[in-house]
Amino acid sequence: MNTFSFAPRDLPPETDALRAEVRGFLDETLRDFPPAKRAFTWSGGDPAFSRKVGERGWIGMTWPTKYGGGGRSAFERYVVLEEMLTAGAPVGAHWVGDRQSGPLLLRYGTEAQRARVLPSTCRGESFFCIGMSEPDSGSDLASIRARAVPTDGGWIVNGTKLWTSGAAAAHYMIALFRTAPETEARHAGLSQFIVDLSGPGITVRAIRDLAGSDHFCEVVFEDAFVAADMLVGEEGGGWRQVMAELAYERSGPERYLSCYPLLAALMRELPSAPSERQAIEIGRQVAHLATLRAMSISVAGMLDAGDNPALEAALVKDIGCVFEQALPGLAQSLLEVAPRVDAGATDYQQVLAHCVQNAPSFSLRGGTREILRGIIARGLGLR
Ligand SMILES: Cc1cc2nc3c(=O)[nH]c(=O)nc-3n(C[C@H](O)[C@H](O)[C@H](O)COP(=O)(O)OP(=O)(O)OC[C@H]3O[C@@H](n4cnc5c(N)ncnc54)[C@H](O)[C@@H]3O)c2cc1C
């Protein structure tokens, strides 16, 4: 049987000064940023905030300096992410580019592609979205139908991407398209492209979700032209590349910190002399949080060492998701305060309402619970 391990890692001492610097920046920049907006954490985007983060050198921190990156360690990046997420900073605009599109291009992109998009990404001026899911193709990603057909100087694309977070504010999509007819080898014939979303033949429509937010989009391609030099990596090698990209997508602390603003607000809201049950439950959550944090820092260490922690990342995402999905229910069982979003609602009620409404989606985005558990089982040699 295969195994996995999470070697304990201490954050290096140089991260202390960085943490203090990030905290100071956030205290000042977000002084008037209300709790209800902080509840969005990495789902909330603000291009002006992203530019400020870029000015500080906190986007693309681990990327080579020749592309505008910081050449810093995965631990330093971890500390910045942790501070941003626990403060509920609106990091959503640059999140995807920093987390996965940039690293994907560093691994599979050409020099020209890197030179074209990475520096502006580091400055917080270019944003990316993820073009994987389609109508009828989510978990079964190999069944996508959006097709790129060769033409003079590039490709003509037709099809639809769905549930594309942040597409309306993004400049680029890293898109997975079918570039060869489907055969019995289901994972063959798929390729990745950088798509400039401002091009003709591309329509981005926002989709309003049940909680009233419209970060989701449908992106329709109608004879859209994508230049040949925008093919990422190998033609037909899209499946392998997408799997590598998903490991970046699943490995970060955002997979257990999405409801952190609620946990912090709950602790503020509880009486200073809590009941025994309240104290036990808060202690239990904080212990879970500390364990998840240790696992996540361990994954940062694996990334720093150049390993591929896909199995460990799937585990952290799955366990982290169980943790953060349980928090809204726990909060309601510890305090008899109803979630509310109307004008008279308190800050705590609004944060609670946000988490109650959005937590169900946590085990869908980035791969569903069942899919992750299948990956874990396969990684352990159980299937
Ligand atoms: C908040 C949010 C943001 C998202 N952002 C993006 C984005 O930016 N870009 C993007 O491309 N996509 C995005 N998605 C889409 C997301 O990746 C898909 O919703 C997800 O992969 C599931 O696909 P589906 O919705 O088609 O459900 P389905 O794949 O139809 O799954 C339905 C149910 O069946 C289960 N199931 C499916 N197959 C199996 C199996 N083989 N074994 C066991 N159970 C199975 C699933 O676990 C699930 O419970 C986002 C989704 C959410 C909720």
Describe this structure in words.
It is globular, with a radius of gyration of 21 Å. With 383 residues, the protein is an alpha+beta fold. The chain is built from 13 helices and 8 strands. It folds into 3 domains: 14-126, Butyryl-Coa Dehydrogenase, subunit A, domain 1, CATH 1.10.540; 130-236, Butyryl-CoA Dehydrogenase, subunit A, domain 2, CATH 2.40.110; 241-379, Butyryl-CoA Dehydrogenase, subunit A, domain 3, CATH 1.20.140.10. Strand 2 (147-151) and strand 3 form a beta hairpin. The strands form 2 sheets. A 4-stranded mixed sheet has the order 1-4-5-8, covered by helices on one side. Strands 2-3-7-6 form a 4-stranded antiparallel sheet, with no helix packed on it. Flavin-adenine dinucleotide binds next to strand 1 and helix 13.
What is the helix content? 40-55%
Q: What is bound: which ligands?
A: flavin-adenine dinucleotide
Distance between the termini: 10 Å
Mean pLDDT value: 95
Q: The biggest beta sheet, please?
A: 4 strands, mixed
The CATH architecture of the largest domain comes to Up-down Bundle
Show unreliable segments: none
Radius of gyration over all CA atoms, rounded = 21 Å
CATH top level label of the largest domain: Mainly Alpha
Backbone shape: globular
Count of strand segments: 8
Q: Assign the structural class, choosing from mainly alpha, mainly beta, alpha/beta, alpha+beta, or little secondary structure.
A: alpha+beta
When the domains are counted, the total is 3
